[in-house]
Task: inverse folding
């Protein structure tokens, strides 16, 4: 089932690109090249999928990690889904809360999923890590990250002279 | 004759800053390599954005140290707990863990460190002298030769991987499709941009590779952690074996020679990364050994052959990368991201445009391997503690650095989205057993292939035009022979009932 669902999703993606390729200026090599590639990959993938379905291959073979991903106790599956949600939400939170606050919260939430021992100590440690990393970004690596008041406070402390 | 740029690079390569970045890279690499689930490719992918603030040569030296260190680091967990830190260390685990069970863990780790260093240093010397020669040769190649060379590289990936032939080909094509996103390289017509200006320059390679190799691994580690995986017990016991290590390696010249040669050769071939090399050298060394019965039960020869060839493969995989722009492995592919981040174009002109910087990296890579032996011999027991790190924490920090790494390349959140979608695509492809390496290679080589195909189409109108290019014809003939041979071999195996080969033909 997982195999067929994954194949279907990739085939849909290729089909979307195939439809979009019709919007490329007709008659040029810029349109022909991707159309040939998309057509060939679509046919090959469809062939592979049909061959797998005919053999009745429901799960990926010899892949313990993926087998674990597709099965396991419900509680673990829920925690895993929360883990995914945290890290997808993190970049969005960064634009709202700024780098330091969003990083601290994302790391803390992720850590709490694994263990709830001494949450406040963990929070303080992760806050220290985020602040130290933010200082590193501003003074060594020079990566301009989204800012909110905690980041502006760090800026003020670093550059008050 | 020695290139004057090489001599000019020597003081830069041996400057304290270069040595510092090399050692830093080795330490980071060993830590990443030692932790099961974290690979050399992942370590390089995460640190590519960090090198942005450095001088190009320092960034490359650090990434080279990470590559070499991570490949060696994988042997620590393989030897101590029989869990290969990287896929390349499976054979090391067979021999090394058997030795560790006999109370010879320090001896096995010492042998692994020296063998890894020897393989790496010799391959680095080969890289230093072969890559510029190959690059000079490549300067005389025109678009027809490049089309043939790229077709050959993609064909090698399709036939060499141990996954079904058609799935490898599908992976290659999907990679080539991904490479068409953005402005057409010849006419500048936008393709698959869906009206987004962020997509005009195509998918950012570093973000895609971080998604493919780092974020997917973080998700897998998180899933394992929540399913209840616990850190293992580590026992680092047994007599110190420094003198014994030196005595053993002194009598194994031919083992080193064979393993290094095979490792470098396989490294040069696209798709044959450090993962598959040790199986081949281990099998060959068993045939030459006076004690073949010891192989798989703690043989020092088996361990030396595996470790030497893995590190030799690292240098080998960099030769086509630097001279032709064709990576020999997934980890080497990450260097393309690093080079382009620093405004360098891997390929024949790299040594012309950035000769001193590249020679600095190559000379420092020789030194890096020597430092790795010293670190491996004297500090290895301190690195073993990283094996106790909980998987949930590793997953958390790999996720954080994946998001940050994807963002830092162009300072835009759009690339983080690209990274997440790439991770999702990598997982989907894994579910349908399409390997990721052909996708990566297709994506990297796609732009170059299309540019050269357009010129090929203009310059080669008839078969007679093609016949005037003997190198192109020869490469195309070899490519056809490789493909036909692979199809014939697999279909014959299917007829004779070889289940494994039948599965791989599909």
Result:
């Amino acid at each position: 089932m997982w195999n067929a669902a994954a194949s279907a999703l990739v085939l849909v993606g290729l089909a979307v690109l195939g439809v979009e390729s019709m919007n490329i200026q007709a008659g040029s090599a810029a349109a022909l090249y991707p159309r040939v590639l998309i057509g060939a990959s679509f046919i090959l993938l469809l062939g592979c999928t049909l061959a797998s379905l005919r053999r009745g291959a429901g799960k990926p073979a010899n892949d313990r990690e993926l087998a674990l991903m597709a099965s396991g106790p419900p509680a673990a599956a829920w925690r895993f889904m929360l883990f995914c949600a945290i890290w997808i939400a993190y970049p969005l939170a960064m634009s709202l809360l700024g780098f330091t606050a969003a990083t601290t919260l994302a790391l803390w939430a992720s850590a709490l999923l694994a263990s709830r021992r001494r949450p406040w100590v963990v929070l303080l440690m992760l806050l220290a890590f985020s602040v130290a990393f933010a200082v590193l970004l501003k003074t060594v690596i020079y990566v301009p990250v989204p800012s909110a008041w905690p980041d502006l406070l760090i800026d003020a402390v670093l550059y008050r002279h | 004759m020695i290139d004057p740029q090489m001599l000019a690079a020597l003081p830069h390569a041996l400057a304290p800053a270069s040595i510092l970045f090399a050692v830093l890279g080795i330490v980071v690499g060993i830590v990443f390599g030692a932790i099961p689930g974290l690979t050399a490719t992942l370590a390089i992918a995460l640190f590519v954005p960090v090198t942005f603030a450095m001088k190009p040569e320092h960034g490359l030296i650090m990434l080279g140290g990470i590559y070499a260190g991570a490949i060696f680091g994988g042997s620590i967990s393989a030897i101590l707990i029989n869990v290969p830190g990287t896929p390349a260390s499976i054979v090391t685990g067979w021999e090394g863990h058997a030795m560790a069970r006999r109370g010879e863990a320090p001896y096995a780790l010492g042998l692994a460190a020296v063998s890894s260093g020897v393989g790496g240093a010799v391959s680095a010397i080969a890289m230093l002298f072969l890559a510029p020669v190959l690059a000079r040769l490549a300067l005389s190649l025109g678009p027809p030769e490049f089309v043939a060379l790229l077709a050959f590289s993609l064909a090698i990936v399709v036939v060499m991987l141990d996954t079904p032939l058609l799935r490898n080909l599908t992976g290659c094509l999907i990679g080539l499709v991904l490479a068409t996103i953005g402005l057409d390289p010849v006419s500048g017509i936008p393709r698959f941009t869906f009206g987004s200006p962020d997509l005009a320059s195509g998918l950012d390679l570093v973000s895609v590779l971080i998604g493919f190799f780092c974020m997917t691994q973080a998700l897998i580690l998180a899933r394992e952690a929540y399913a209840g995986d616990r850190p293992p017990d580590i026992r680092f016991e047994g007599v110190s074996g420094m003198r014994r290590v030196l005595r053993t390696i002194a009598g194994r010249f031919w083992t080193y020679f064979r393993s290094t040669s095979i490792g470098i050769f396989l490294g040069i071939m696209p798709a044959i990364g450090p993962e598959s090399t040790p199986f081949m050298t281990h099998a060959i060394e068993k045939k030459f050994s006076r004690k073949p019965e010891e192989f798989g039960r703690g043989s020092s020869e088996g361990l030396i052959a595996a470790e030497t060839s893995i590190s030799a493969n690292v240098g080998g995989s960099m030769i086509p990368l630097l001279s032709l722009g064709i990576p020999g492995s997934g980890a080497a592919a990450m260097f393309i991201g690093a080079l382009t981040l620093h405004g360098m174009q891997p390929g024949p002109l790299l040594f012309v445009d950035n000769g001193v910087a590249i020679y600095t990296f190559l000379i420092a890579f020789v030194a890096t391997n020597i430092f790795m032996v010293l670190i491996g011999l004297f500090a290895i027991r301190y690195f073993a503690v990283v094996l106790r790190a909980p998987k949930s924490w590793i997953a958390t920090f790999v996720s954080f650095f994946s998001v940050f790494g994807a963002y830092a390349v162009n300072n835009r959140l759009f690339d983080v989205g690209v990274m997440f979608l790439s991770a999702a695509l990598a997982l989907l492809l894994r579910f349908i057993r399409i390997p990721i390496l052909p996708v990566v290679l297709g994506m990297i080589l796609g732009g170059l292939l299309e540019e050269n195909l357009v010129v090929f189409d203009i310059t080669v109108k008839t078969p007679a035009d093609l016949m005037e290019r003997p190198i192109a014809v020869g490469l195309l003939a070899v490519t056809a022979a490789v493909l036909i041979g692979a199809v014939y071999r697999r279909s014959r195996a299917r007829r004779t009932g070889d289940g494994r080969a039948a599965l791989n033909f599909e």
